[in-house]
What we know:
The chain is α+β, with helices and mostly antiparallel strands. Helix content is 37%, strand content 20%. It is built from 15 helices and twelve strands.
Amino acid sequence: MAAERLNAIVSQLSPSKSGLSTITQKNPDDVVITLAIRTPLAKGFKGAFKDTQLDYLVYSLLKKVIEKSNIDPQMVEDICLGNVNDPKAAYIVRAAALAAGFPNTTAASSVNRFCSSGLKATQDIANQISLGNIDCGIAIGAELMSAAGPGPQPFHEEILNRSKDAADCMQPMGQTSENVGKDFDISRKSQDRFAAESYLRAERAQKAGWFDDEIVPIATTVKDPKTGQEVRVTATKDEGPRWGTTYESLSKIRPAFPDYGDRSTGGNSSQVTDGAAALLLMKRSTALAINQPILAKYVGATVTGLAPRIMGIGPSLAIPKLLGKYNISLADVDIIELNEAFASMAVYCVEKLGIDAAKMNVRGGAIALGHPLGATGTRQVVTGLSECRRQKKRVLLTSMCTGTGQGMAGLFVNEVL
């Protein structure tokens, strides 16, 4: 342990060290992930979780965290839930944690940064650990799109009149996708081709069983909409992938947002989905002391802002910002999980940044799997680390666009090689 600390000090004083060698070093004070799991992703309004409440989904996943990690719940000092649509999220995560078996000494909170809420929750827990405020915590992202209410109400007249960007925060997400398509000439054809590849990759991954080490089964109740009869079911796999989806079939789908354009469709946009994902984080020294398996190192995350009307291109700004902070390039990154909110923004980001498509969304993305808003930021980490383990790769980059004109990105190092 003393030798590791000495190496850490020497590395900080050595300007010749490359960014890659720095982030892949192992030090006692590193923030590490010892468990990364998620629920299946279910179709909104008609899937396995359509009649499930958010509190039950969070409770069920937190129970799985205890079960799969075999950690003493007393060790967990804080739990942060990323969620977008439920105004009671802070109440929910606290009550769910207590019911799941965590003591009343385990604190809880919720955060909302729209589609990056899960990554924001991860960052919050990691930062607390890094600063020494806590030694161990859980980041969880969860969203029941089936229970989503109406969109935002108009802002105060003075706010709308003083700033066009402020007024543009009211634009529906579909409108922002069409803005990206028009402003940057992302054709309907290129969007459909991207979507077809997402479906193909998700189908391949599902058939090969690549998702199996990510997903924990969740037992719940589904109500028959015609008879009202309740049936007990266990969700075990993602419902979004539609096997056999092709570019030709996607090209026949009519535009989803005809008031704003004709390029984004239900086939090349992310699916409405219910689901949750969780990460158990602690200091490396803590993990070693209590014999927790170290899956990965949390390196860092950052956020940026941009014009709300083209919010989709947020990753094209957040990714270079994050990589610059750690003195690495895209060439140093092995696996990329970029949220496919819409094919328009995904195609733009790939082209703008020169991303190697073979590295990105190897198992498909939100177009094929779904996008439970608050869960996506943690779900991408779970999926990305699993893919890193499968390929025996090291560096994972995750990123997503964020409503109202923001982008976020996170960097992780897989340690199961």
